[in-house]
Amino acid sequence: MKLVIAFLAIVLVLSSASSRAGFAVHVIDGDTLDVDGFRHRLHGIDAPEAGQACSGSDGLDWSCGRAAIEKIEELVSGKHVTCDSRGSDGYGRLISVCVADGREINATMVEVGLAWAFRKYTADYVPLEDAARSRGIGIWQAPTQTAWDYREAHWQAAVQSVPDGSCPIKGNISRKNVKIYHVPWSKDYPKTRIDPSRGERWFCSEADAVAAGWRAPAWGR
């Protein structure tokens, strides 16, 4: 009997770790959200970064990063959100497929042209990406830099202008004493200044920043 009880306890713990549900949802960016205190990076997709602009069919740039955030906010607002975890990454986030009142968020973001299928990790959303591209919607209106190329370009530019070229991440401490790190592609990166006398510092990786007690900024609500 004791063995049975112990086995059931393990099953319950594993089930709790892999599936989270709740109404307390906070959107971080176009592919990351908090559900009842647990941070989920949406599996298989890569949305434009918060400060990223994309090319439009009219020849003008539009704020695709902001549009992606607003779309997720629309999808989860007032909804019951369930996230099924596929594992975790090096930043303490769960890699998850999230559903809002029966509608999968990951798939929807790719379907409406506000995220790329993250082919580096999975082909799950490639058919939806192909369909969005053929319709010329969202990020597919015109040739646009992918989110991963956008991040790489900003990283390479930053390493040329920081004290230690291998450590361009800014570990800022806010007026409310909140430790927030800004990567080179963060929309607040250019205006963030590092003052070592206040305990602020530079980091070489996001994992280092998280391990030291800093967190990423949140761009949604």
TrEMBL record:
Signal peptide residues on this chain, from the entry's feature table: 1-21
One Pfam family of this chain: SNase
Assigned keywords, A-Z: Signal
Source species: Rhizobium fredii (Sinorhizobium fredii)
Matches recorded under InterPro entries: SNase_OB-fold_sf, Staphylococal_nuclease_OB-fold
Protein's UniProt name: Thermonuclease family protein
TNase-like domain boundaries: 18-142
Taxonomic lineage from the root: Bacteria, Pseudomonadati, Pseudomonadota, Alphaproteobacteria, Hyphomicrobiales
Entry annotated with the keyword Transferase: no
PANTHER family with a match to the protein in the record: BLR1266 PROTEIN, EBNA2 BINDING PROTEIN P100
Domain of life: Bacteria
